Structures are given as structure tokens and as C-alpha cells.
Amino acid sequence: MAHLNPTHDPARRAWVASANVPDAEFPIQNLPFGVFSDARRTRAGVAIGDEIADLDALLGAGLLDGDAAKAARACADGRLNGLMALGPHYASALRAALSELLRSDGARRARAEAMREHILVPMARATMQLPCAIGDYSDFLTSLHHTERHGRYKGLKDPLPPAFKSLPIAYHGRASSIRVSGTPVRRPLGQYRNPDGAVEYGPAPMLDFELELAAFVGQGNVLGQPIPLGAAADHIFGYCLLNDWSAKSIQWWEQVLGPFLGKSFISSISPWIVTQEALAPFRLPAPARPDGDPAPLPHLTDAGDRAEGGIDIALEAWLSTPSRRAAGEGPLRITSTHLQNLYWTFGQMLAHHASNGCNLRPGDLIGSGTISGADDAARACITELTNAGADPLKVGPEEFRTALEDGDEIVLRARAQRPGAVSIGFGECRGRIEPALSVAAAGRPR
Amino acid sequence: MAHLNPTHDPARRAWVASANVPDAEFPIQNLPFGVFSDARRTRAGVAIGDEIADLDALLGAGLLDGDAAKAARACADGRLNGLMALGPHYASALRAALSELLRSDGARRARAEAMREHILVPMARATMQLPCAIGDYSDFLTSLHHTERHGRYKGLKDPLPPAFKSLPIAYHGRASSIRVSGTPVRRPLGQYRNPDGAVEYGPAPMLDFELELAAFVGQGNVLGQPIPLGAAADHIFGYCLLNDWSAKSIQWWEQVLGPFLGKSFISSISPWIVTQEALAPFRLPAPARPDGDPAPLPHLTDAGDRAEGGIDIALEAWLSTPSRRAAGEGPLRITSTHLQNLYWTFGQMLAHHASNGCNLRPGDLIGSGTISGADDAARACITELTNAGADPLKVGPEEFRTALEDGDEIVLRARAQRPGAVSIGFGECRGRIEPALSVAAAGRPR
Predict the structure, then answer these.
(1) Which of A106, A414, A428, B231 is 20 to 30 A from B241, alpha carbon to alpha carbon?
(2) Cα distance from B231 to chain A (closest Cα, Å)?
(3) What is chain A's pLDDT, residue by residue, as a tens digit (446 residues)?
(4) Is residue A202 a contact partner of residue A276, using CB atoms and an 8 Å limit?
(5) Which residue, of B129, B162, B183, is where some domain finishes?
């Protein structure tokens, strides 16, 4: 397993107690980056247990120097784009310095712990923000199972598009409406076709979630110059959870040149970016292609990507409904899937994306597409969980769903795990459906 | 005709002589905004004849005050987003002040002309830049003729998608690869299917241009709050030409969820933004719908939009080839079309775009889609001009095209015209095809 360094040492523990509890999402081996605000201002930080190491405060206290200090200064504007642009070396230097400051048996513990109140902010007192300016957002379609099921629902003779096994299919998404976990999801108004064939504009029925993982681009490339697959991993800064909310009613009617208003009303992401480096202990070989599938073309083939293009990440979706909450019942786990259910690696997605010379910029977001697997439990959206409505999902004694209803809340979670490594988490991506505006209110200028 | 003000006065002339020549693109009635650079730095300006009024210099010289000064200060960072965000009143105040300063019979002429060397920069000494940061780029498909022809080439029984007359169809485009006129267009590498059915990666054949007009968003809207059609015009800052370069070979193979790498290698725009205000004298009723077509739904219907949702803009595409240039021959006009060939107005496009609550931001770009008309001369891409390759386009005594070849150059031009008004131009959108990188060069990390 390549790229392991002292920050991955499973024996290392933090002097922040909450980072050491069993199944902590943010142990000292994780150290994901994010942006948070409090009453004072917005700034970059790193999660440790249930606290946030405040990069501005660490700089101000003189606890960072050299490349680690340069890395922290690069995000002094309250977003991570500058750090992303510097390339993997600087984020790595900063994580190494933080690991030294936060480890329970480190030479710098005493000095850091003495300033604890100054350099650590409890998550409970912080509001997470988008971690960076997202210039472009692209979303892929890389689960064969998701794609085949949807092809079958549409009654296609060949449910898989011809290009599916030759290239990772993708489309451009809307960057402006990406919001951080916790932002309410207002049911969109939209134009759709009723069951009786009439077209109307109103609150969109058939709202769905889609469970995805997304990569943030680190270093970019110059327009016209592709990124070889062998270099792709160095262009990925890290990963977050993505809920690609979809109004299927709008999508089915509008879609000629891909998804547009059926998705652009909001996309939710988890606030912490788990770095490419933190995931090094969890790399797996790229998912095996089924026997008989064509080999990828040479520019989508690389020995390193084949050996460790996969990542051992389990992902879940949880649903809470108003009735369940009223009855004091917790959320229902409705999806358990794994990143290895994808047909293409993130390296292949990124290399394909830049293969025509398209320039990727630091902070660009690249979604995996819905991570559905072959198993029924691994269906990662309600459309699949209900076989396109044929088998409603039981969510309570007398309650079923074929789509999300107002008040429903979806929480996505993920965890990287591997024997011999300390498991790390992604935090959560949460969103609750709010009722739509009335058409009358939408028509009044503001 | 609404919204006319003194800046539209056809009797007004500039003391900059080049603004008064017949058919000048930038007479004093136009005053489009752009961003330019010289050896010193990058800054915002306004075109007048073949000169650029330097907004920083005008501010520094004390020639602007009040709302006009506030408008100029809003783009002191060398991009127009701040001015766009202020809403139409401020750009209008700045145009009014500039018109007063530049008019040949104005009270402020003497003071301004005395500082001519300081406040005017010859276009020949400036390099135009992108006018603003483009957060999101959306492209529409609003020409019925373009859509029907492409449907027929594909052999579709019903060449028009069912939703075409119910909503303006659109997709998200790539913002990072938008470049200003004059930027070379490198033929992309890409994956495509050969005539013999084999899939390969190499220099993409079947390169095409697409002639479009595009609107820049001015004031944005809050996520979740649609923009009523009656307010849409106030959210449009102005317009430019757009060449939506397309690698049809890539597009035909990859396209499942809309265009992706077939277009994201570059999109070219003209550098000057002709304002919504400057186009007020050229408004027309929205194009009439053919008899029997359904009326738009109420949220896409507005009396003001119906009365003046159209604009009298003629557009052209010109092709120059290496052989023509070697023979000393000028470019060939291959397309003559008109904005009224669109089925939907820009107001409808913008209102539809925000109808699900999607937030538009100042500087977002909204393309019209290829502006093809019913006439053969009004076919606005080579695919249509050649009936999808069946009738090659004659470009010289012995030379034909079914797609663009290396060295070919496309120039788009447009002009607003109306009896009683001084015609205004859009400048040009120019791009020349350069040979592709070799696959070997693309595979080397840089």
C-alpha cells in the first residue's frame, strides 16, 4: 500500500479525548479540511474528534511553520481553493504538522494543549460552510447497477448505453446551488407531465435522493492539456458525501440534453473534505470488470490505478419521517452500499474529464453518480429502492414511500475501513424537505 | 417602445471620430462594457468607436460622480461582476454619464477631450479579456429549425422533443473553458466511434461551430426564489456572441446525459457586452408561435415579454480557410440569420431557468442555442449547412467542407438594427482551429 506516512500510524492517539472514542469519525488519522464560522468570522479548520483546529488561530499562535504555515496561509481567505491549488505536498505538510501538535505523545503536545481554548473550537459552537468556491460541478454515471435498473424502468431493450463500458458517462451540473449539509431542501416548483398527460407548473412530485461520493479537484490543468491517468490521483484533493437531490417529475419531462431543473434546485455536500492522503491506507485495486467486458482504452488504463484506484468506503443512507420523529423513532437505514460498486475509478473519471483538454480548476467538484450495487440493500435512491414505484418502501407500521414527502430527512454517512488501519468517517450530509413555495408567491418579484 | 432615454438619441454623435463612421459597431448609442489589459494592468472599459474609455482613468480624473462613479468603482477589480450585481440602475447611470462626456455637443466635452490621452485607450493597443468571472454557464436549445433538422438527421419519427414547445430546453455547460474571441481553438482529443464501429481516442473529427447569442445575468436571485417573467429583463445585464464549438464525433458517442467533452474543450465569446439598455430601441414583439402551437404556461407568459421579448438582431458567420488566405481571398459568409428565429425569448429562458428556485448569479452566462432559421442561408452550423454531410459546403474552386479543418477560422458578427435608430454592433467572436496535441504528448504529465 503506497504513500503511508506517520500520519497514518494506527498507534497514534490524540490528546483531544473525543478523537479516540471507538468509531470516532475524526480520529487523528483523518484530519479532514473544512470551513466554519462562528459569531466572529469564517475561517478554515481541521476536524479532530468533536472539535475544530482553527488554522488561523494556529498560525497566529506561531504553532505552524515552513510549508505547513504556507498551507494554512493559503486558506486565510476563508476558503480552501488556495490550499488546493498548491498541490498535495502542502496539504500533506499541514496534516503532518497538525498530527504532531495533536498526538498524545508528541514533543509539541504541551505547548499546543496549553493554548487549547485558543486553537480548538467545539463543533457544537461552529456553523459549517461550503469548503471552497466551486467553479464547476460535474456529475458522473458510473454505477452499472444504477444505470441498468433505470434502463429497465424505461423499458429499454438494451438498458446500458453503448458507451457505458468505454468511458465514464457524465454531465455538467449546477455549481451555484450546491449547499452544505443541514441546509433545508425546499421542494422545487417545476414543469412536469401529469399522469393524465397534461403539462403543469407546480410543486414537483417524485422527489428523490441520490447517494454519491464526490472528489474535489486540487491542482488544476491548463486548457488544452489533458491529465494522464497516472497523474490523476495527484489532482484530487479529497472527497465528501454528495446528495444529488432529484425531482424526477421535472427530469422526466425536461430531459433532452441531460438533467437541468430536475436537479439544479439544490445539491447537498458534507462539510469535511477527507483528503486523498488520509485515504491512502484504504486503497483497493480498481473494481474488477465482469468477464468479457472490453478493456479500457490505453488513456484510461494505468498500472497504479488498477492496483489502487479503488477505496474501501462503505456508504449509507438514512431516512427519518415526520411520523417516525413524532413516535420517537430514529431514522431508518434504507441503503448500505460500497464505493467498489462503481465501474470506473475516480482517477479514470478525472482523466476522462480532462482528456479533451478541458481545464479543471482547484475546488471543482466531481460526483461519482449514484453508488448503487447489485444487492437490493445497495440501491442508493428511492426510485431503485421501490423498483420505480412498483414496490413502495415501508417506513412505518402503516406508512410507505415511493418518493420523498415534505418533512422527510435524508442523512448520508460513509466510513473508510480496512484491517490494520484506524477507520475514518466522512461526517454526515443531511437535508430535510420543506414544502414548496406557492406558485403565487413564486410569481411575485422580490 | 419602452425605456428610451437620451443615450438612445439617434442625433447624438461622439467627439471620437471613429464612433461616427457609417456602420460603426460602437457609436455613442452603444457603449458596451468589457475588460481589457495592456502592459500596465487589467481593467474595465467601455467601447467607443475604435477606442476604449478606461473606467479607472475616468474615475481617477474625477470625471465620474454619484451613481456613475459608484458603478465604475464596482468594477475596479478588473471584472464586471460587481457592476452586474448592482442592478440596471447603476450601469444605466454610468452609460448616461459616458454619453454626456463623449457627445460632440455636450457641456463636458472640453474637459473630457482635454484628457483624451489619459482616458481613452486605442483598441489596437489593448488585449481584450473575459468580461467577468462566469460562475455557471447554461446553454439552451431554442431554435425549432435547428432542433427539427437534427431530429431528422437522427432519423427520429418525431424530430421535435415532446417538451420543446412547453419549455425552453437547456443543459449546463462548462464554465472553466470559456475564452474570449481570438483565443486559438485547439482541436480536442477525444473518444469516438469510427465509421467501422471501433472506438478510439485521438484527434476528434467532425468539428463544428454553432452561432449563438448569450445573455449575462445582472442581479441574481436567492436560492429557492424564482424570477417572474415580468421581472426577467431586469436580471439581464447584456449580451455577447457565443461560438459553442462542438466536436460532433465525441458528442455522438458520449451523449447520454447531454453534451460533455464534445463541447467542454472551449467556448468562445465576443468581448463586449452590449447592454440590455442599449438594445431598448431594437425590441420587437416575441416571435409569433406557429398556428396551433400550445400557449406557454402562465409562468412563461407575460404581456411585456410578448410585446417586446424579441430583439432585432441579425447575425452572421464567416469562414476563412488556409487556401482562401493563401489565395488572398477574404472569408466567406456562410450563415445569415436573425434572433427572431428562436422559439423562446431570453426572458422566458431566464424565468424558466429560475422557475425551480435555481439561483442565478451576476456574471452567469445563458446561451440561446444555435440560432438557425427556416431558410437555407440561416443554418447556423456546418452540420446543418451540409445536411449532416450529405451536401458538402463549397469553400473554394476545388474545396469542400463537411466539418472544420485545422487552420479554418470562424468569425461571428451581429448587429442590432431598426428604422429610426442608430444601428449598433457586437464586435466579433473569432476562433481559428489549431491541430490537436499528439496522443503521446497528451499522456505526458506537465
Answers:
(1) B231
(2) 7
(3) 456 899 999 999 999 999 999 999 999 999 999 999 998 899 999 999 999 999 999 999 999 999 999 999 999 999 999 999 999 999 999 999 999 999 999 999 999 999 999 999 999 999 999 999 999 999 999 999 999 999 999 999 999 999 999 999 999 999 999 999 999 999 999 999 999 999 999 999 999 999 999 999 999 999 999 999 999 999 999 999 999 999 999 999 999 999 999 999 999 999 999 999 999 999 999 999 999 999 999 999 999 999 999 999 999 999 999 999 999 999 999 999 999 999 999 999 999 999 999 999 999 999 999 999 999 999 999 999 999 999 999 999 999 999 999 999 999 999 999 999 999 999 999 999 999 999 998 887 76
(4) no
(5) B129
Same domain, residue pair B247 and B372: yes
3-class secondary structure, B48: strand
Total domains, chain A: 2
Q: Structural domain of residue B229, as residue ranges?
A: 137-442
Q: Is residue A383 assigned to a domain?
A: yes
Check if the beta carbon of residue B230 is closer than 8 Å to that of residue B302: yes
A365 neighbourhood in chain B, CB within 8 Å: none
The string of DSSP codes covering B141-175 is E-BHHHHHHHHHHTT-SS-S-TTTTTS-EEEEE-S
Tell if the CB–CB gap between A169 and B444 is shorter than 8 Å. Answer: no
Indicate if A400 and A430 belong to the same structural domain.
Answer: yes
My answer on whether B376 and B405 are in the same domain is yes
To test the contact with chain A by mutation, choose from B245, B257, B267, B361 the residue with the greatest count of A C-beta atoms within 10 A, namely B257
Query: ipTM of this predicted complex?
Result: 0.97
If asked whether residues B52 and B150 sit together in one domain, one would say: no
Which DSSP helix (H) or strand (E) runs through A111?
helix A109-114
Question: End of a domain among A94, A129, A164?
Answer: A129
Q: Are residues B221 and B307 in the same domain?
A: yes
